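yo

u said u wanted the structure for the complex thing, so here. seqs first:
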Amino acid sequence: MSDLFEAVHRFSSETSPLDFHLVIENWRLFWYGLVNTLILWIVSLIAGGLFAIPLAVIRARRVPVLNQIAYGYIYVIRGTPLLAQLYVIYYGLSQFEFIRESAAWTILRDPWWCALISFSIGTSAYTGEILRGAIEDTPRGEVEAATASGMSQSMILRRILLPSAFRRSLPSYGNEVIFSLYTTVLASMVTVIDLLGAARQFNSKYYLAYEGFVTAALIFMAIVFVITRIFRFLEGRMLRHLAPISS
Amino acid sequence: MIASIRKIALASVMVFASFGVAAAEDIIRFATEAAYPPFNERAADGSIVGWEIDLGMAMCEKIGRKCEFVAQDWDGMIPGLLSNRFDGIFASMSITEERKQRIDFTNKYYQSPAYFIAKKGTKIDRSAKDLGGIKLGTIGGVQSCFLAKYYPDAKVSIYPTAEDTYLDLQAGRVDTILAESVQTDFGLLRKNPDAQYAFIGEPALDKECYGEGIGIGVRKDDVALKGILNKAIKEVRADGTYDKLVQKYFGYDIYGQ
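structre next:
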């Protein structure tokens, strides 16, 4: 470990125009940021994903009243920048005294929870629309066959529509997963030290913009590399029946 | 022989360099944050106004040069200067040793200390490394340098701008903020006279973190501009223009010792 440290030091001072020695020295800061980024990202994906399923079903089935509400929700969330949503939740809600005195304040006063809530809301709207499209694209024949074999509406949903929609939405959902990773950088705007927040702190401490931000960018690239591998694997397994027939 | 070739090469480089200077001499571009009232801020119509803008323009008038202010986020100030996107940082930037390793500064044009600001009666234990366990908000840079040095165990949240710290002080997310005094006087204290916010205790002073005052940041190789600006500061100080602007905006001296 100390050999590696020494090597980076030598590389930084002799060869590289960028000083990565200080980055290594501050690895705790970047590690802390990475952990925050990963937790915010994964938990918001799970929470947003779970909320996206009823949204998608309501929209695809055109459930009266609820459909209009779901449409309005998705429209507002997709129609406004995520940073504005985060600020509304973090600074906006804190302006009201009745909120500060309510039980919700124990959660809302914490910037970490505000970030998590707004990221979950954000990804739920986008994922909901991806899933709705996939449900609506299900071949009619599959549903008719299920109805003919005596399945109830809810059983069709559980056994036919949703599993098939999940599979077919994988490629576009992979995109949403990557995008939602990048939206977590907004957490640093409300004092949560995520990966970008760590790079910002590093920058404000040493005035080394490139070193800090390049480090953050490289870590993001590594995460995305893993995500794309996972999705390629999943697509290979689950969408094999849709692949072109090779002769 | 080789020496004379060198001389010719050097001379031609200098000719080109002076062309560069001549082209740049038309207009001096200053970067400002445009979010630091009353020093620099955006007016309702989107233009950048403030004491620093008035001072900068007065200085330029004294030395007969055209100047222009451009808005730039704080994080990109030094990188932007180094990549020639503007010629000077006129944005209440403290002259510190760390910054001096990357850029150069003119003489100071003001210096106002940082204070802890909280509701009157808030107890801040300045002798404890964690400030008595209270929650504190501040912005990055010099303020976080001071805190890391004297209060390493304090619970500190770092905000993108000073305005954000005011909002969270008012919301009660933090008990106190560490902020530059003039800015907070205008941004928070004068705007909320009923809220009973006050400067608590002694000013936060540390030469290593806060440096020797606030100067205009310039590129290290831009010696000519540094000289011109220093002359301009001296002239506006000498002829009373500076004092007039200080009186207009603050009502008390901000030049310091």
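Residues 27-61 of chain A form the longest helix (35 residues). Chain A touches chain B through 19 residues (CB under 8 Å).
cya
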